[in-house]
Amino acid sequence: MPAPAVWLYRACLRLYPAEFREEYGRELTLVLDDRLRDSSSALERLVSCLHAIAALPFAAAAEHGRVLARDLRYALRLVRREPAMTAAAVFVSALGIGTITLIFALANGLLLRPLPYPSADRLVAVDEYSPVDASEHGDIALANAMDVRARSRLLEDVGIYDTGDATLLAADGAEQVPAAVVTDGAMRALGVQPVLGRLFTSAETRPNGPRVAIISDDLFRRRFGGDPATIGKPLDTLNASYTIVGVMPASFHFPALAEAWFPLQSDPATTPRTDYFLSAVARMKPGVSVEQADAEMQALMHQIHAEHPPDNGWVGRVRPLRAVFSADYRAGIFALMAAAVLLLAIACGNVANLLLLRASVRRGEIAVRTALGASRRRLLRQLITEGLLLGAAGGALGILLAVVGTPAVVALVPIDLPRWLDFSIDARVLAFTIAVSLATSLAFAVLPALASIGSAMGDALKDAGRGAAPARGQRRLRNAVVIAELAVSMTLLAGASLASRSFLAVRLQPLGYDTASVLSMNIGRSVRRYPDGAASRALLDRIKDAVAALPGTQSVAFTSGVPLGDSHWGRLYTIEGRPRPLEQMTFVNHVVVTPDYFRTVGVPLRQGRAFIDADYGATTLVISRGFAERNFPAGDALGKRIRFGPPQNKEPWYTIVGIVDDARHDVLKGDDRDTLYLPYSDDLVPGAMLVRTAAKPELMVRSILSSVHAVDRDIAVSHVRTLEQLVDRNAWRDRLIAVLFVGFAAIAMLLAAAGLYAVLSYAISLQTHEIGVRMALGASAYGVRATVVRQATALALVGLGIGVPIAALLAWLWRGELYRISPADPVTFVVAPLAFLFVGAAAAYLPARRATRVNPIVALRHD
Amino acid sequence: MRQFILSRDTFHILVALADGERHGYSIMQEIGERTGGAVRLSPSTLYSAIKRLLEEGLIEELAERPDPAHDDERRRYYRLTKAGRRAAADEAKHLEKLLADARSAGLLPRRT
Question: Which letter, b or e, does each residue of A446-460 get, where b requires 16 or more Cβ atoms within 10 Å of its Cβ?
Answer without folding.
Answer: bbbbebbbebbbeeb
